[in-house]
Amino acid sequence: MTPSLAGPLRDALLAADFTYDAVAGLLGAEAHAALSRNETTPALGRTTDGSPLATLVRLFLLQQPVPAVDAERALPGLVGRLAAEGMVAESAGEVAALLDCRPYGTDDPSAGSGTGDLWVVSDLTPALDGRPQQVTGDHVLGISPASTSLAQLTLREDVGSALDLGTGCGVQALHLAGHADRVVATDINPRALDLARFNAELNEVGDRVDVRDGSFFEPVAGERFDLIATNPPFVISPATGSRSDRLVYRDSGMPGDQVVEHVVRTAPQHLADGGWCQVLANWAIVGDRPWDERLAGWLPDDCDALVVQREVIDPSAYVELWLKDSGHHPAVGAGTIADYVARYDAWLSWLKDQGVTGIGFGWINLHRTGATGSAGSTSSARHRELVDWPYDVEQPIAPAIAEWAQARAAVVDPSSTLVVRPDVRQETVGPVGAEDPATILLRQQRGFRRARQVDTVVAAVVGACDGELPVGAILDAVAQLLGLDPAETSQRYLPEVVSLVGEAFLLPVQAD
């Protein structure tokens, strides 16, 4: 795609009001929801008026040929140029899309040029309306659940430099360009690199996005960044040496989860002091070994780390998921039953041979603090948390990641003054008429929405944290109120208070 075409195309898309909100309004809630499930039939009846907006929806989102006269009205002076670039095809008075171009709705106000409206060009969405799922090895994925999940995970503070590792069509680079002075986006797929450059120009951030060809960190050798965001090709499968044998957007060519381990171990070498690396990943659960024990061995010594396992599926379900994704399942693709069964058996057998009993999906967040916590270090401030958290969280989750880092860095002692986070609620459960509750829970309404069971002492201490008294005085007062020894109470419960601060139930009061 020629970058000089991006400006005129953007003008046409704006003139047609081809934005996320306008498309949603045209289709209505039911048809819009159906389209998110790759079903176009409900939308067809709502896009028949020949208007520029309806024409663009039919052409790109519904993958329907449109009359050439309507296409010219929606894309004035551009149809021939787009055909020459391979974005559309002209035939017998009609125009059909060869690439997908869609508005991108995001809650990130800084994304792109900051206008709130983004467009992403990628390969066509496969398997619309139950058509065979057929993708080539160099397929360039568009906006997907994985890309939106990573976008919601990524911190959005202003930074000097950011790296989108494995950019694909450039979705993360568009987000990063909204709050980074300089963005580098890397990939090994030439088609992805071409589309990422075009999308940067289409969204008026081409001057801030440097797209480079190369594998993983090779194109940025010797460079450091304030923020790295990556959704690497993490599918856990047998190694394949030939790029033609794999789908580059999801398969790294490395066996198992080595690609994720490589990213985690290597990223700190490319992080500036205080920098973050945020990874969306799969990892193998091997035998009876706890997943967190295995991943802890990957974590670098000079980084704090928050690793969150969001989901676990068994090997059979995992193989089925990705064989359907690649179009090898006869129900969704053009493959034969015999070929599907052979691929299924080979992949599943390989996983079993590796001792894989499950596959975890989640987030890996590394924060380069420089503190190693080793015996010879002057600091023991390295913080690691590996947590299994399949529960509902607030999206975007990025503010909660930043809050975690702040909470873990807080120093809490008896002189600290604390307040309860505003969204924390106390729940009590017990028999009807009982004087004391059987269970007391503290529950967050925002962020990770953590819940924590506490006893009456902790509940009383938390209830008294109003920013006035230091926590040491509160512990003494609660001990006296409950007839407990003050010294023993402080020794036992101060670590509980520290933990509550670390999980952001309590917040330190900042000195004026």
Automatic annotation (TrEMBL):
<feature type="domain" description="DUF7782">
    <location>
        <begin position="403"/>
        <end position="508"/>
    </location>
</feature>
<keyword id="KW-0808">Transferase</keyword>
<dbReference type="GO" id="GO:0008276">
    <property type="term" value="F:protein methyltransferase activity"/>
</dbReference>
<dbReference type="InterPro" id="IPR007848">
    <property type="entry name" value="Small_mtfrase_dom"/>
</dbReference>
<dbReference type="GO" id="GO:0035657">
    <property type="term" value="C:eRF1 methyltransferase complex"/>
</dbReference>
<dbReference type="Pfam" id="PF25004">
    <property type="entry name" value="DUF7782"/>
</dbReference>
<dbReference type="Pfam" id="PF23186">
    <property type="entry name" value="DUF7059"/>
</dbReference>
<dbReference type="InterPro" id="IPR029063">
    <property type="entry name" value="SAM-dependent_MTases_sf"/>
</dbReference>
<comment type="similarity">
    <text>Belongs to the eukaryotic/archaeal PrmC-related family.</text>
</comment>
<feature type="domain" description="DUF7059">
    <location>
        <begin position="15"/>
        <end position="97"/>
    </location>
</feature>
<dbReference type="InterPro" id="IPR052190">
    <property type="entry name" value="Euk-Arch_PrmC-MTase"/>
</dbReference>
<keyword id="KW-0489">Methyltransferase</keyword>
<dbReference type="InterPro" id="IPR055487">
    <property type="entry name" value="DUF7059"/>
</dbReference>
<feature type="domain" description="Methyltransferase small">
    <location>
        <begin position="148"/>
        <end position="282"/>
    </location>
</feature>
<dbReference type="GO" id="GO:0008757">
    <property type="term" value="F:S-adenosylmethionine-dependent methyltransferase activity"/>
</dbReference>
<dbReference type="GO" id="GO:0032259">
    <property type="term" value="P:methylation"/>
</dbReference>
<dbReference type="GO" id="GO:0003676">
    <property type="term" value="F:nucleic acid binding"/>
</dbReference>
<keyword id="KW-0949">S-adenosyl-L-methionine</keyword>
<dbReference type="InterPro" id="IPR002052">
    <property type="entry name" value="DNA_methylase_N6_adenine_CS"/>
</dbReference>
<protein>
    <submittedName>
        <fullName>Transferase</fullName>
    </submittedName>
</protein>
<dbReference type="GO" id="GO:0008170">
    <property type="term" value="F:N-methyltransferase activity"/>
</dbReference>
<dbReference type="InterPro" id="IPR056684">
    <property type="entry name" value="DUF7782"/>
</dbReference>
<dbReference type="Pfam" id="PF05175">
    <property type="entry name" value="MTS"/>
</dbReference>
